[in-house]
C-alpha cells in the first residue's frame, strides 16, 4: 500500500507539472518528438507506472525503460509532428494480466489508441478508462474481461472505434453509449449481453459503418427498425444472438451494406419485398438457420457484387430467383434444407465464378444443368434429396476443381458416365437414384477418389477390379443388381453391409462364395428368389439385411409362422417345419436341438430350434436377431435368418460340411495335426476377439464349446451359437444353462454367483477348447474310465505328476511339444479360477499368432529364435 500511495503522490506531482508545462508544448510545436526531452519525460513516467502494475510474464515490455525515449519503446507508436503527438499503445497478445492502472495511462497526453486485446486480464472493464478522454480507439477484445459494460465509457466522446468483443461482458448495452456519436466501429460480439437494445443506440450512432452484436445468445430482441436508419453501415453482424421477428422494411435502405449476417437467429416471416434492390455493394448475405418463409425476392439479382448467398435451413418456397445464378461475382450458393422448387437453371459459363452449389433437401426438379461441369471454378455440387430427373451429364465433373458431387436421393436415371476428367474428385455420392448400367471401370483411374456411394440404384454387372487402385474410405454398392466376384481387396477392407442387397455378388466370406460348383445357376436362382421376395421385402434399419420375408403358415391362419431371412436363401416356413424330425438332428444342447436341413439348391443350413421357456415376443426376438445378424467375420458363422411361431424361435445358421470341432474330437480317432489345431485355436480366438473388442455393440458368446465351433475342410473355424441370451433373455438363458449338465465344464465357475456376465467367462470357455485341442480329448469326458471333466483331469495330472508331459496328446509328434506346452500354459491361464488372471481375447490372439508363426518354418530356411 505504501508504494502505491507513493506512486500516486508522485503521479500527482507529474500531473501538476504537466499542467504547468503545457504552454511549453505549444511553444515548441515545430520540434520533433524525440527532441523534446523535458516534455516527453512525463508520459514516460506515466507509462512506466502503468507498466509497473501490469503482470508481464514474457517480458514483452522490456524495452520500456527510462533510458530510452518512450516513442522508441516497442508497442508504442507516436505519430504526428509538432506539439500534438498522438500516442498509440498496441499491447495486444502479450500475455498481460494484472492491474490496468487507467489513472496513469489515461493521463498520457495524446493517447489516441489503446489496445489491450487478447490478454488475460480476468477482471471487469475498468471504470477509470473513462478518463482516457482523448481515446479515439479502445480495443479490449478477447482480454478476459467480465462483468457489466460500464455506462462511463460514454464519456469517451472522441471514440470512433470500440471493440469489446470476445469477452464475458454481461447485462444490458447501456443506452448511454448513444452519446458516442462519432463511433464508426462498435464490436460487442461474442459476449453475454442480454435484454433489449435501446432504440436511441441506433438512432444516434449514425456514423457507424461496422456493427457487431453477434453471438450474444441472451439478447432477446426484435431487429430494431432504427437500425435501418444507420445509412452508413457496411458490415452488420447480428448472427447467433436470439433476434426474433421479421426483418424490418427499413433494412432495405442500408445501401452501403457489404456484409449482412443474420444467420442463426429465430427470425421469421417473409423477406420484405424488394429485398436486395438497393444492396449494390452487398458481398455476403447470411440468412441461414432461421425460420424465414415465403419466396425469395427476385431483386437479389440487383446485388451485382454478391459473392456468398447463404440461406440454408429456412422454409423458403418457390424458385430461387433466376437472376441470382448469373451474378458475376457469386462464389457460393447455399440453399439446402429449404422448400425451394423449380428447375436448376443453366448457367452462363463465361461469367460464372461459382465454386460451391449446395441445394440439398429441397424440391428441385428437372435435370442437372449441363453447364455445371463447364464452370472452371466449381468444386462442390450437392443437390441430394430433391426430385431431379434425367441422366447424369457426361461432363458433370469436368471442372478442374470439382471435388464433391452429391446427387443422392433423386430420380436420376441412365448410366454413370465415365468421368475420366475428374482429377480432383474426392466424393461421388449417387445413392438412391434409378441409375442403371455398370459401375464404370474408369472410376478406378481417378487419382483422389476416396468416397463412392452408388448404393440403392439399379446398377448391374460386376464391381470393377480397377476400383482396387483407389485408396477408398467408402465404397457403398449395396442394393443394386451387381453380380460376380467381388475384387478381393474390396471384400476385406470394408464392412460386408456395403455389399448387401446384391445377391449375385460372391466372394470369400459372403453368403455366396464363388467357388461353389453351382455358382452360375445359383446366381440366377438367387436373383429369381429375390425377385419373388420383392413383395415381402422390407429393408430393415441400418441396411444390414438383404432380404426379409414374412410367411404366414399355410394361409392367413390364426397362428402365424414368421420367417425372417437376412440372406437370400431358398427355404419356406413349411419346409423348415417339415425338416424338424429326429433324423435330421445333428446336435443337442441346453438351448435346444440343432437340425441339419438341405435346401433346394443343395446348400445346407443348421437350424437351432430353441427350447421355449420365456415366450419372447416377435419384436423382442427380431431385435435380438438383428443385432446377431450384423456380426460379420471370417471366423463367425452367419446367422441367416430365423423363424418365429407362438413364442418358439428357430435360428438358421450357416452350416459347414465338416461339422463341428466336437464331432472331430469325438470321432474314433482324432487325427488332426498340431498345425491345424493351432489354426483352429487362432481362428476361434480371432472370432471371439471380434465379438469382444472389434465390433460395436460388443457381444459375449456365452455358449462357447467345441460343438459351436464349425470347421471348413481347411480347418478354418467358424464360431456359431452366440448371443442366445439376446434372443430368449437372461433369465431363460441361465435356467436352461443350469439344466444342461453335459457341458457344464465350459462354464466359468463365477457364473453362478455373479449377475453380470463378463468377457472373461468366454475366455474361460475358450480355455477349455484349448485344453481339448492340446489333449485331444473331449471336454466333458476326457477319459472313458473316469467321470471328471477336462479341467479336473488336467489339474489332477499336473498335481499328481508335477509335469505336463502326460497331458499332451500322445498322437502328436514330439517335434510340436514346445508349441503344445506353450498352448497348454495359455489354456491354464484362460481357465484360471480367478477371472482377473485370465487374459483378454485380443491378448490370446497375439499369443497364438506368435505360436503359429513359430510353427511355420520360415522360407529363408533360417531357424527362428526360440
Ligand atoms: C529512437 O528512434 C529514432 C528513430 O527511429 C532513432 O533515430 C533514435 O536513435 C532512437 N533513439 C534511441 C535512444 O534509441
Ligand atoms: C479469474 O479470477 C478468479 C478470481 O478472481 C479466479 O478464481 C479464476 O480462476 C480466474 N480465471 C482465470 C481464467 O484465470
Ligand atoms: C482489436 O484487436 C484485435 C486483436 O488484435 C484485432 O483482431 C481487432 O481487429 C481489433 N479491433 C479493431 C476494431 O480494430
Ligand atoms: C442522441 O442525440 C441527440 C441529438 O443528436 C441528443 O440530444 C441525445 O442526447 C442523444 N442521446 C443520447 C442517449 O446520448
Ligand atoms: C430438410 O429440410 C427441412 C427444413 O426445410 C428440415 O427440417 C429437415 O430436417 C431436413 N432434412 C434433413 C434430412 O436434413
Ligand atoms: C423429369 O420430370 C419432369 C416433371 O417434373 C417431366 O416433365 C420430365 O419429362 C422428366 N424428364 C425426364 C428425362 O424424365
Ligand atoms: C450426400 O447427401 C446425403 C443425403 O443428403 C448425405 O447423407 C450425405 O452425407 C452427403 N454426402 C456428402 C459427402 O455430402
Ligand atoms: C450404404 O447404403 C445403404 C443403402 O443406401 C445405406 O442404408 C447405408 O446407410 C449406407 N452406408 C453408409 C455407411 O453410407
From TrEMBL:
It is a single-pass type I membrane protein. Keywords: ATP-binding, Cell membrane, Glycoprotein, Kinase, Leucine-rich repeat, Membrane, Nucleotide-binding, Receptor, Repeat, Serine/threonine-protein kinase, Signal, Transferase, Transmembrane, Transmembrane helix. ATP binds at residue 608. Residues 580-851 form the Protein kinase domain. GO terms for molecular function: ATP binding; protein serine/threonine kinase activity. It is found in: Membrane. Residues 1-27 form the signal peptide. The chain crosses the membrane at residues 524-548. GO terms for cellular component: membrane. It comes from the Eukaryota. Pfam families: LRR_1, LRR_8, LRRNT_2, PK_Tyr_Ser-Thr. Its main location: membrane. Belongs to the protein kinase superfamily. Ser/Thr protein kinase family. This is Protein kinase domain-containing protein.
Amino acid at each position: 500500500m505504501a508504494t502505491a500511495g507513493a506512486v500516486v503522490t508522485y503521479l500527482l506531482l507529474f500531473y501538476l507539472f504537466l499542467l504547468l508545462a503545457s504552454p511549453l508544448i505549444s511553444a515548441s510545436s515545430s520540434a520533433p518528438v524525440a527532441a523534446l526531452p523535458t516534455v516527453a519525460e512525463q508520459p514516460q513516467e506515466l507509462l512506466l507506472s502503468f507498466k509497473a502494475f501490469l503482470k508481464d510474464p514474457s517480458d514483452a515490455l522490456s524495452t520500456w525503460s527510462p533510458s530510452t525515449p518512450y516513442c522508441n519503446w516497442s508497442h508504442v507508436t507516436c505519430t504526428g509532428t509538432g506539439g500534438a503527438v498522438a500516442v498509440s499503445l498496441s499491447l495486444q497478445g502479450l500475455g498481460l494480466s494484472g492491474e490496468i492502472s487507467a489513472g496513469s495511462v489515461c493521463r498520457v497526453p495524446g493517447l489516441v489508441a489503446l489496445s489491450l486485446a487478447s490478454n488475460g486480464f480476468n477482471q471487469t472493464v475498468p471504470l477509470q478508462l473513462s478518463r482516457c478522454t482523448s481515446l479515439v480507439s479502445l480495443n479490449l477484445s478477447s482480454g478476459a474481461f467480465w462483468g457489466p459494460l460500464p455506462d462511463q465509457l460514454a464519456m469517451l466522446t472522441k471514440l470512433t472505434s470500440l471493440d469489446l468483443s470476445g469477452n464475458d461482458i454481461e447485462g444490458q448495452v447501456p443506452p448511454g453509449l448513444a452519446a458516442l456519436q462519432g463511433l464508426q466501429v462498435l464490436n460487442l460480439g461474442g459476449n453475454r449481453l442480454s435484454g433489449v437494445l435501446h432504440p436511441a443506440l441506433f438512432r444516434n450512432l449514425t456514423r457507424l459503418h461496422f456493427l457487431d452484436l453477434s453471438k450474444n445468445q441472451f439478447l432477446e430482441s426484435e431487429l430494431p427498425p432504427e437500425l435501418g436508419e444507420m445509412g452508413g453501415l457496411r458490415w452488420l453482424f447480428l448472427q447467433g444472438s436470439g433476434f426474433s421477428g421479421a426483418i424490418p422494411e427499413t433494412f432495405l435502405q442500408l445501401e452501403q451494406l457489404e456484409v449482412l449476417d443474420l444467420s442463426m437467429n429465430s427470425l421469421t416471416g417473409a423477406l420484405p419485398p424488394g429485398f436486395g434492390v438497393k444492396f449494390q455493394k452487398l458481398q455476403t448475405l447470411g440468412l441461414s438457420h432461421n425460420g424465414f418463409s415465403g419466396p425469395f425476392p427476385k431483386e437479389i439479382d440487383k446485388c451485382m457484387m454478391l459473392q456468398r448467398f447463404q440461406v440454408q435451413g429456412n422454409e423458403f418456397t418457390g424458385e430461387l430467383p433466376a437472376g441470382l445464378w448469373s451474378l458475376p461475382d457469386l462464389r457460393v450458393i447455399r440453399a439446402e434444407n429449404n422448400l425451394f422448387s423449380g428447375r436448376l437453371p443453366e448457367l452462363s459459363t463465361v461469367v460464372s465464378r461459382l465454386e460451391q452449389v449446395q441445394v440439398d433437401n429441397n424440391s428441385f426438379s428437372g435435370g442437372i444443368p449441363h453447364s455445371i461441369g463447364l464452370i472452371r471454378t466449381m468444386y462442390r455440387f450437392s443437390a441430394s434429396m430433391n426430385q431431379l430427373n434425367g441422366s447424369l451429364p457426361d461432363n458433370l465433373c469436368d471442372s478442374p476443381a470439382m471435388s464433391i458431387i452429391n446427387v443422392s436421393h433423386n430420380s436420376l436415371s441412365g448410366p454413370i458416365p465415365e468421368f475420366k476428367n475428374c482429377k480432383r474428385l474426392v466424393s461421388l455420392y449417387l445413392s438412391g437414384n434409378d441409375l442403371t448400367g455398370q459401375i464404370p471401370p474408369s472410376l478406378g483411374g481417378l487419382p483422389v477418389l476416396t468416397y463412392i456411394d452408388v448404393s440403392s440404384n439399379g446398377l448391374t454387372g460386376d464391381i470393377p477390379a480397377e476400383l482396387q487402385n483407389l485408396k477408398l474410405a467408402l465404397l457403398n454398392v449395396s442394393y443394386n443388381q451387381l453380380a460376380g466376384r467381388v475384387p478381393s481387396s474390396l471384400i476385406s477392407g470394408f464392412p460386408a453391409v456395403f455389399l448387401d442387397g446384391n445377391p449375385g455378388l460372391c466372394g470369400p466370406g459372403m453368403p455366396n462364395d464363388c467357388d461353389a460348383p453351382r455358382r452360375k445357376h445359383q446366381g440366377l436362382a438367387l436373383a429369381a428368389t429375390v425377385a419373388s421376395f420383392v413383395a415381402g421385402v422390407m429393408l430393415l434399419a441400418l441396411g444390414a439385411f438383404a432380404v426379409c420375408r414374412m410367411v404366414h403358415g399355410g394361409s392367413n391362419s390364426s397362428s402365424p409362422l414368421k420367417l425372417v431371412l437376412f440372406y437370400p436363401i431358398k427355404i419356406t416356413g413349411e419346409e423348415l417345419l417339415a425338416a424338424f424330425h429326429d433324423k435330421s438332428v445333428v446336435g443337442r444342447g441346453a438351448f435346444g436341438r440343432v437340425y441339419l436341413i438341405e435346401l433346394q439348391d443343395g446348400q445346407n443350413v443348421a437350424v437351432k430350434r430353441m427350447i421355449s421357456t420365456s415366450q419372447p415376443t416377435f419384436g423382442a426376438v427380431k431385435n435380438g436377431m438383428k443385432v446377431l445378424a450384423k456380426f460379420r467375420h471370417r471366423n463367425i458363422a452367419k446367422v441367416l435368418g430365423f423363424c418365429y411361431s407362438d413364442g418358439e424361435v428357430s435360428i438358421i445358421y450357416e452350416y459347414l460340411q465338416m461339422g463341428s470341432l466336437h464331432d472331430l474330437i469325438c470321432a474314433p480317432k482324432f487325427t488332426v495335426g498340431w498345425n491345424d489345431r493351432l489354426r483352429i485355436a487362432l481362428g476361434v480366438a480371432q472370432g471371439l476377439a471380434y465379438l469382444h473388442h472389434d465390433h460395436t455393440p460388443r457381444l459375449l458368446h456365452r455358449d462357447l464349446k467345441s460343438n459351436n465351433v464349425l470347421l471348413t475342410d481347411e480347418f478354418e473355424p467358424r464360431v456359431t451359437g452366440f448371443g442366445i441370451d439376446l434372443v430368449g433373455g437372461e433369465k431363460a438363458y441361465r435356467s436352461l444353462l443350469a439344466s444342461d449338465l453335459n457341458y457344464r465344464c465350459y462354464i466359468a465357475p463365477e457364473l453362478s454367483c455373479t449377475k453380470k456376465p463378463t468377457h472373461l467367462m468366454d475366455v474361460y470357455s475358450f480355455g477349455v477348447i484349448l485344453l481339448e485341442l492340446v489333449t485331444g480329448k473331449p471336454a466333458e469326458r476326457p477319459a472313458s474310465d473316469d467321470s471328471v471333466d477336462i479341467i479336473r483331469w488336467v489339474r489332477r495330472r499336473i498335481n499328481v505328476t508335477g509335469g505336463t508331459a502326460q497331458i499332451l496328446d500322445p498322437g502328436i509328434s514330439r517335434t510340436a511339444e514346445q508349441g503344445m506346452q506353450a498352448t497348454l500354459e495359455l489354456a491354464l491361464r484362460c481357465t484360471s479360477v480367478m477371472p482377473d488372471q485370465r487374459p483378454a481375447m485380443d491378448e490370446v490372439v497375439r499369443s497364438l499368432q506368435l505360436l503359429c508363426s513359430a510353427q511355420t518354418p520360415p522360407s529363408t530356411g533360417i531357424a527362428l529364435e526360440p
